[in-house]
Amino acid sequence: MASQPYSRSTFINSTIKVARDYGFDGVDLDWEFPSNESDMSNLGLLFNEWREALEHEADITKRARLVLTSAVYYDTNFGIGSWIQGGVPPEKIVMGLPLYGPTWSLENPNINTVGAPTTGTGPGSGLLVYSQVIDFNRNNNATIVFDNTRISYYSYAGDSWVSYDDIGRSNSKSIMP
Description:
By secondary structure, this protein is an alpha+beta fold. It has helices at residues 5-21, 37-61, 80-85, 130-139; strands at residues 26-31, 67-72, 100-106, 118-121, 127-129, 143-147, 152-157, 160-164, 174-175. The protein folds into two domains: 5-92, no CATH class; 100-175, Roll (Chitinase A, domain 3). The protein contains four helices and nine strands; from the N terminus they run H-E-H-E-H-E-E-E-H-E-E-E-E. Strands 3, 4, 5, 6, 7, 8 and 9 form a seven-stranded mixed sheet that branches. The longest helix has 25 residues, at 37-61.
């Protein structure tokens, strides 16, 4: 959708119509994982065109401008600073914390670090909500690892592997490298 001007325009116009038809205050885009530099460039184009369309629609209709928000890529190695350096005002940034964890089945349970080979999704068909992560860790006596590079946690038990954010409390054994 974001790679072509026509499809961007169609998407933008439809979001404005839906927001107005249902009395929403704004629109939100959740594109957290652009896969390459082209996707990132198209994401930037989408944001610019969307903002301009929201301003134009508000001018024409004399209604309050719809709010545009987005859940976007956040690389722990660079963090919010990269968005600020890219020109986003700090007062416009809100950091969210996901309350879920993607899961994987390890190809070899003895190779269980970040980037270990996998055979597919793990428990919960590939996703556990936070309470399920805690239950998984407790019920399986999972090993919990804090990854200093990514500033996040992962745990594993047998061939099951889970990545998640946490405050560090657990009834399971923990490895803090």
